[in-house]
Specification:
alpha+beta; single chain; about 40% helix
Length: about 140
């Protein structure tokens, strides 16, 4: 079953399930929050290239900006978007350990918007406010 879920695309499934629930239970879809978290890991992880990972669909666990103040440990990132009404998680994405929020937040919002045409307020930290991101979400 896990292989089937992976083949179908976990992010896509994660988007479809809660959006169906919000329709059924009348969750307000007028305000959303977006943020990312890093998770540091212990152990020996391969040093696959970003290109090889992109082709395989896998993330790379690698050194990046450590929010935990542990630059000695590799990490991966988790992007999450949730509704203001009930804090329902609506979008989940696992990302490379060295990915930068300001390079992805606009893309994440645009991807979410493709799934559901919603006129809503999106709340994010300063990483969203780059010229490229603002052009992408207008």
């Amino acid at each position: 079953m896990l292989d089937k879920l992976y083949d179908a695309g976990l992010t896509e499934i994660f988007i479809r399930v809660p959006l169906s629930a919000t329709d059924r239970f009348g969750v307000k879809m007028d305000t959303f929050h977006l943020d990312s978290s890093s998770f540091h890991v212990h152990g020996d992880y391969g040093t696959g290239t970003d290109e090889a990972s992109a082709q395989s669909g896998l993330i790379t666990i690698k050194y990046g900006y450590s929010r935990d103040h542990r630059p000695d440990l590799k990490q991966f990132l988790l992007d999450l978007m949730w509704s203001n009404d009930g804090n329902i998680p609506l979008y989940l994405r696992v990302a490379h350990g060295n990915e930068v929020d300001s390079a992805m937040f606009g893309t994440l919002m645009a991807d979410f918007h493709k799934q559901r045409q919603i006129d809503a307020l999106f709340v994010a930290d300063a990483a969203l406010y780059t010229e490229d991101n603002l052009q992408m979400i207008v």
